[in-house]
Design a protein that fits this description.
The protein is built from 6 helices and 2 strands. With 124 residues, it is mainly α.
């Protein structure tokens, strides 16, 4: 079974994981990961888990995680869920793509500013 996480959910998990790295608090991270999944997804995951408890599953994953690398956390989630027949699919650009999009947005803003300057040239 495939479970899809949208960009917003992935970004939220990444930010929460980064905070967990900085503050050493995985409790909030566990809650944020849980909230990233829909209720139906959680129910399907729990049906496939031996323990039947997604919260406990996340606790085990976070205990195994080294607490430093956000990408490793996603790899652990994908691996552990893969073992029970669930493939996590993410609809997210890489961070480099996000940075390129930001750069393009800034370039577009500069172009608009230049166009506005041309409109207000005093020709007296």
């Amino acid at each position: 079974m495939d479970i899809y996480l949208d960009r917003r959910a992935v970004r939220h998990i990444r930010l929460s994981a980064q905070e967990a790295v900085e503050e050493g608090d995985t409790e909030s991270l566990r809650e944020d990961i849980l909230e990233a999944f829909t209720e139906d997804q959680v129910e399907e995951i729990e049906r496939r888990l031996d323990t039947g408890d997604f919260f406990e599953f996340l606790t085990d994953v976070l205990d195994e995680w080294n607490g430093d690398d956000v990408d490793e956390l996603f790899e652990l989630l994908e691996t552990q869920l893969g073992e029970v027949g669930i493939d996590i699919k993410t609809d997210v650009k890489s961070e480099e793509d996000d940075e390129e999009d930001d750069d393009e947005d800034e370039d577009e803003d500069e172009d608009v500013d230049e166009d506005l300057d041309d409109d207000f040239v005093d020709e007296d």
